[in-house]
Structures are given as C-alpha cells and as structure tokens.
Amino acid sequence: MKKIHLLVSVLGLGLLSCSVFVNFLLYNRTSKYYLELNQTRLDPLGLNYYPVNSQAVAKPDRSRVVFFGDSRAASWLPPKIDRYEFINRGISSQTSAQTIDRFSAHVSPLKPNLVIVQVGVNDLKTIALFPERKQSIITNCQANIKQIIQASRKLGAVVMVTTIFPTGEVPLERKPFWSDEIGLAIKEVNTYIKTLADDKTVVFDTYALLADRRGLMLPQYRLDELHFNQQGYTILNQELARQLAKIDRLIHKPAKAQLE
Questions:
Q1: What is the chain's mean pLDDT, rounded?
Q2: What single string gives the DSSP state of each residue in 144-165?
Q3: DSSP H or E stretch at residue 67
Q4: Taking residues 8-32, what's their average pLDDT?
Q5: CA distances from 164 to 8, 14, 90, 104, 176 (A)
Q6: Dihedral (C-alpha) 242, 246, 249, 252: value to the nearest 10 degrees?
Q7: How many C-alpha atoms does 223 have within 13 Å on its Cβ side?
Q8: What is the pLDDT of residues 73-92, one digit of tens each?
Q9: Whole-number pLDDT of residue 60
C-alpha cells in the first residue's frame, strides 16, 4: 500500500511539474505576442525602425542590393562580394501588407539596383487562427508579393524574389496556434511565386535548398520553428552568390549611373 501511495505521489508530482512547465512556456509565448501586438499598435508599419531618408552610396563602383521583408530577411547577413553593397530593410513579424505599405519609405529612397524579397510566412501562419479566411489570406499574400515586385521594377531595380522558407517542427506551446494548412499554403504561394519570373525578376528557390522530404526545414539549419541559424544562411549565401554571378550584367551599373 505504501508503494502505491508513493507511486501516486510521484506521478502527481510529475504531472504538476509538467503542468507548471507547459504554463511557463505558454506564458512566455503569450508575453511575446502581447509585446509584438502593442509595438505594432504604436508603429503599425515599422516606419521608425529605419531612417526614412536615403542612404548615400558608400562606393559608387558597387551595385546596391536591398534585402526586404520580414524577420527572415532581417536575419540574412549578406555574403562578401566586392561588386555589391548590401543593405537590410527586414522587420520581424511583418506581413506582406505591412512591407508593401512601407516600401516607399524604406526602399525607394535607397535607389537599389537589386531588391531581394523574402516575405509571406507571417501572412500564412494566421490561417491557424482564421481557417475560414484561408483562401483570401493566400490570395492577398500573392497579390502583395507581386506588388512589391512591381514597385521595385518601377525604381529600375532587378528583383530577386525568394520562395517562402519552410517552417520547422512546431514546439508544444505553439501547437494550439498552428495548423498543417500553413505548410500547404506555403507550397501554394511558392508555386505562384515561380510564375513571376521574367527578364528582370529572378526567382530564388530557397525552399528547395532548406526543406526535407516532408517540407520541413532541415534540422541542422534550424534556430526555431520559423527561423534559420547561421549555417542555414551560409547555404543561402552560397547559392545567392551563384545567382548574382548569373545576373550580374542586369544588376551592375557603371559609376556614372549610380551617381545620378
């Protein structure tokens, strides 16, 4: 009988510990989202995140490349290539609607020669919260990506639009806010992105580089369920360097043109 009581006590303590741990994880996740929500209320487009004025060309013999999009773009440390000047204008947690609305403030004044676009996952992850709006979320995401491309082209820039990075294994505390439909939506939008390629729009299929057979991010590149570690970006930069070499003549501008 004592052994049974001891076993029950141990099981009870274990369940209590698990409950405390799960609640702690949920509290941390909720706190993060609460902070993000209120930060967005204060500055819906993130206009104060970067200076609105143009940034002078550091070296006139280099072509200017702007990374633009969400946190995946913001975390992208560029490769070291002498012919290019890299500037980052990514902002964490932003949707495609937010990015297109700040394009004129954060990208246009920079007069880029190439805009690299990585955006969309923050749109599609809301499908778990609003499943009845799935198709409109996908359609709006596609339209906004196309609009970013068009806005970049109006600046005279070449556009490299990346497919949306895959997501990783979802941790326990995030599962109540997740859905398998998100992964399917990413594949659908990526299929659409591939149709946007033309003479001045290059599609960089990052998904194919980073996903396993299940469509999840390869574990060796994972920082968390949405973000990649530096090893992942190293793989991206190796392919980016090859892509830039292929389209260098489209991007590279003579010094006189950059100073105008």
A1: 86
A2: HHHHHHHHHHHTT-EEEEEPPP
A3: strand 63-69
A4: 53
A5: 49, 40, 14, 23, 23
A6: -20
A7: 12
A8: 999 999 999 899 999 999 99
A9: 73
